[in-house]
Design a protein that fits this description.
single chain; 11 helices; globular; binds 2-OXO-4-methylpentanoic acid
Length: 326
C-alpha cells in the first residue's frame, strides 16, 4: 500500500476504502493510534494520516527517525502536536476542516439543554417525578449568547443561533467581516460580563490554557450557562467546580473536560474514575457531560477522512498542503 492511516475506527473504514478506490490508492489501515510501540510501521512512508495520537517530543523524534515528514490529521484541533518540536524536525502537519455544522449543531443542542435544564428534566421524568419543581428554564430569545472563538465552527454557531432572536456577542482576535451583521465583536471581559450563555469554539494553543479561570468566572453574570465543545484545557477545572458550588453557574454542558483524554472514547462502565475533576463534575445534577462527541456525524467522519487524505497526497506530491497548520 502507498498510504498509511492510524487510529482508524470501524466506522471510518468504508470511507477510507471508498477514497482509495476513487483516487487509485491502497491504504494500510491500522486500528491503534500511532504511538512509540507501532511507529516502526511507518518505515517507507513519507506521510501518515492520524487521529488520537499524542505527538510529543519522543514520538515526533521516532517519526523523524523513520524518515516520515508529513502528518495529516483527521481532526480540526492540532494541540496534540508539539509544534516547536515538529518545526525543529521539519515535520509538516495539516488539519481537517470537516463540516463545522457537526460541532455547531451539537453546541446549539447543549446551549438549549443548559437553558431548559434538560438533564434535570429527564432525570426527574426517568423516576416518574412529573412535578415541575425547580425545572423552570430560560428563553434563548431573551438572552445574550457569547461565542468565544468565531472561526469556522463559532461562525456556524452564530448563524444557527440567528433564528432564535438572541443577542450574539463574539470574541475573536481575527474578526470575520461576514459575521458583522450577526454578532457584536467585543473584548473577552465584556463578553464574560454581558453573556447569559457562553460557548467555546477556539483552538487550544497552549497560550490559552485555562483562559476561563477564577478571575473570568468572577466577571460572569450570576446564573450563567456554560458550554464547551472545544478543549477541556481552556477551562480551569477547579475554578469551574468552585463556580458550580457557589451557584455562579446555573448549568454547564461539557463535551470536553480538562484531563478527559484517557477517559473518553472508551467504556469505563464499572471501573472507578480516578480523575478528581471528572468525579466532581459528574456529581452535579446541573452538569451534562458528553464524551467528546460533538464532531460525530456520518457526514463529518467522511470529510475527516477525505480532507486528511487529500492533504496527505498533496504533501507527498508537492511538499505543501491546503490545510497545512505547522
Ligand atoms: C477535532 O476535530 O479537533 C476534534 O476534537 C474531534 C476529535 C475526533 C479529535
Amino acid at each position: 500500500s502507498d498510504l498509511i492511516a492510524f487510529g482508524v475506527r470501524p466506522d471510518e473504514k468504508t470511507f477510507f476504502e471508498q477514497y482509495g478506490k476513487e483516487h487509485g490508492h491502497t491504504i494500510r489501515l491500522i486500528p491503534q493510534a500511532l504511538n512509540r510501540d507501532n511507529v516502526g510501521e511507518l518505515k517507507g512512508y513519507e506521510g501518515v494520516c492520524a487521529l488520537e495520537s499524542i505527538f510529543d517530543e519522543a514520538l515526533l523524534a521516532d517519526i523523524h527517525a523513520n524518515g516520515t515528514k508529513y502528518i495529516a490529521l483527521r481532526s480540526v484541533g492540532y494541540d496534540s502536536v508539539d509544534e516547536n518540536v515538529a518545526k525543529q524536525l521539519g515535520i509538516k502537519v495539516s488539519n481537517s476542516s470537516y463540516s463545522p455544522s457537526s460541532v455547531a449543531e451539537f453546541a446549539v443542542m447543549l446551549i438549549l439543554m443548559t437553558m431548559r435544564k434538560a438533564r434535570q428534566i429527564t432525570r426527574h421524568s426517568d423516576i416518574q417525578d412529573f412535578s415541575l419543581n425547580g425545572l423552570d428554564g430560560h428563553q434563548l430569545s431573551n438572552s445574550t449568547v457569547g461565542i468565544i472563538g468565531a472561526g469556522n465552527i463559532g461562525a456556524t454557531v452564530a448563524r444557527c443561533l440567528s433564528g432564535f432572536g438572541c443577542e450574539i456577542l463574539a470574541y475573536d482576535p481575527y474578526p470575520n467581516e461576514s459575521l458583522k451583521n450577526l454578532v457584536e465583536y467585543v473584548e473577552l471581559d465584556e463578553l464574560l460580563r454581558r453573556s447569559d450563555v457562553i460557548t467555546l469554539h477556539t483552538l487550544y494553543t497552549g497560550e490559552n490554557y485555562h483562559m476561563l479561570g477564577e478571575r473570568e468566572f468572577n466577571l460572569m453574570k450570576n446564573g450563567v450557562c456554560l458550554v464547551n465543545c472545544a478543549r477541556g484545557e481552556l477551562i480551569d477545572g477547579h475554578a469551574l467546580i468552585d463556580a458550580l458550588k457557589s451557584g455562579k453557574i446555573m448549568s454547564a454542558a461539557l463535551d470536553v473536560v480538562e484531563g478527559d483524554q484517557p477517559l473518553f472514547n472508551s467504556n469505563w462502565n464499572n471501573k472507578p474514575i480516578q480523575d478528581e475533576i471528572m468525579r466532581s463534575l459528574r456529581s452535579f445534577p446541573n452538569v451534562t457531560i458528553t464524551p467528546h462527541i460533538a464532531f460525530y456525524t456520518a457526514n463529518a467522519v467522511k470529510e475527516m477522512v477525505d480532507h486528511a487524505l487529500d492533504n496527505l497526497i498533496e504533501f507527498m506530491n508537492t511538499t505543501e498542503a491546503t490545510n497545512r497548520v505547522i
